[in-house]
Specification:
Blueprint (H helix, E strand, L loop, with lengths): L1 H5 L12 H31 L11 H4 L9 H15 L5 H27 L7 H24 L3 H7 L5 H8 L15 E3 L7 E3 L3 H20 L7 H18 L2 H7 L10 H19 L8 H18 L5 H5 L1 H24 L11 H7 L4 H21 L5
Antiparallel strand pairs: 1-2
Helix pairs in contact: 2-4, 2-12, 4-12, 4-13, 5-6, 5-13, 6-7, 6-8, 6-9, 6-13, 9-13, 9-15, 10-12, 10-13, 10-17
Length: 397
């Protein structure tokens, strides 16, 4: 909003034409808004929730000590993120709006889940089936829209979307205008193959299904990771920083050509949104660091994970998310392995067995008597390494 008002002016305001400057401004704005209003939001949540988030009895003394802590702290993140984005991003860019649509929609799904848990004082919120169905529906709409934006720049994309006219034509008019188009004809309905220059695995309309899996998987992986004070928000910020750089490079033809990565016109503006996320995340950590004054809740974790997924789809770097978000992947896999192995062994032997002492993985280490702060710090270190490894793949082609 502020960008649109002032960027056309000359002189000092010319800085607003630079994505890097506006990203820095978004970081600072989102951080200050989150910190300034954080206490007020926490006090409001505490007054409304009474007993706070129900704490599942995991036979862990550290967890039981958290009783009475309010949840839905994701509202602190969203206030900061929206403030930074709406002030400093180019609101004419459709990638900003599709990302905000997914983020806010998933945040609302998380809110309904948190609300059910708080009001019923149970760890069982909205049923997993309903959440998955709604999540896949939201992701399908977003991925179809993104495919239309990508298709607006390629002849093959127009062909893919020809059957959906006039919707395809309408989406094409929203795509950022550029005289340079992606060279690969399969750009719209294709998935970039890691370590290969400008090659896309052609999926056609199945790209929407692939994107749905990326968004829903990312949302749930971050949700699984959110279990200890500060555990999810810092790795999320590192992943956001990595994708901010990817978005900037992907949206710049010169850098994309040099690195041999896919050029996605207009995707660079996502750097500003990700900057706002980082600032809001650090503002939330101000209150969520051990011992936490507030929990993120599904209100925060589902929206953050979905945001990461839809940005991966927008920038054509879906597979990089497996590396950059490696910590989230490991946490999700630990749950899947634990549940799968337990059911398999119970079916075969009549007695279910477990791979880990408890899942997700961070609880396994707590069961080994690791202090919570040690688990969190070491997982933070891993998240930095995963983010750097993911960025390194940009040049391994």
């Amino acid at each position: 909003m502020l960008y649109e008002w002032l960027a056309a002016d000359s002189g000092l305001f010319n800085l607003l034409n630079y994505i890097t400057f506006r990203t820095g401004a978004a970081v600072v704005t989102a951080f200050l808004v989150s910190v300034v209003f954080g206490d007020m939001i926490i006090n409001l949540l505490r007054a409304r929730q009474g007993k706070g988030q129900p704490i599942r009895d995991l036979s862990l003394e550290q967890q039981l000590e958290k009783r009475g802590t309010p949840t839905m702290g994701g509202f602190i993140i969203w206030l900061g993120l929206l403030s930074g984005t709406l002030l400093w991003a180019d609101l004419r860019n459709p990638y900003i709006w599709v990302t905000l649509f997914v983020t806010v929609s998933y945040a609302m799904l998380g809110f309904f889940d948190d609300y059910a848990k708080v009001t019923k004082q149970t760890d069982a919120g909205v049923s997993a089936g309903i959440r998955l169905l709604a999540g896949f529906g939201i992701a399908a709409l977003a991925c179809a829209f993104i495919m239309g934006l990508h298709g607006a720049h390629t002849p093959a994309g127009h062909a893919e979307w020809g059957a959906l006219n006039p919707l395809a034509e309408k989406i094409a008019t929203l795509a950022p205008k550029t005289s340079i188009t992606p060279a690969d004809p399969d750009f719209s309905g294709g998935v970039a193959v890691p370590f290969v220059n400008d090659y896309f695995l052609p999926l056609g309309m199945y790209f929407i299904l692939f994107g749905m899996v990326v968004v829903v998987g990312s949302a749930n992986a971050v949700n699984f990771t959110d279990g200890l004070d500060g555990l999810a928000i810092v790795p999320m910020s590192f992943a956001a920083a990595a994708y901010a750089l990817i978005a900037y490079l992907t949206g710049n033809f010169v850098f994309a050509e040099y690195l041999g990565i896919q050029f996605a016109p207009g995707a660079g503006e996502l750097t500003v949104l990700l900057g706002a996320m980082i600032g809001a995340g650090m503002g939330f950590l101000w209150y969520n660091a051990y011992p936490a004054k507030v929990f993120m809740g599904d209100t925060g974790s589902l929206g953050l994970g979905a945001m990461l997924g839809v940005i991966a789809v927008s920038t054509k770097h879906e597979f990089a998310l497996v590396v950059i978000g490696g910590l989230f992947v490991i946490e999700a896999l630990s749950v899947m392995m634990q549940v799968g192995w337990f059911k398999l062994t119970r079916r075969m032997t009549g007695e279910g067995k477990r791979i880990f002492r408890m899942a997700p993985l961070h609880h396994h280490f707590q069961k080994k008597n690791w202090p919570e702060t040690r688990v969190v710090a070491r997982f933070w270190i891993l998240s930095v390494l995963f983010a750097l490894a993911g960025l390194a793949t940009l040049k391994l082609r």
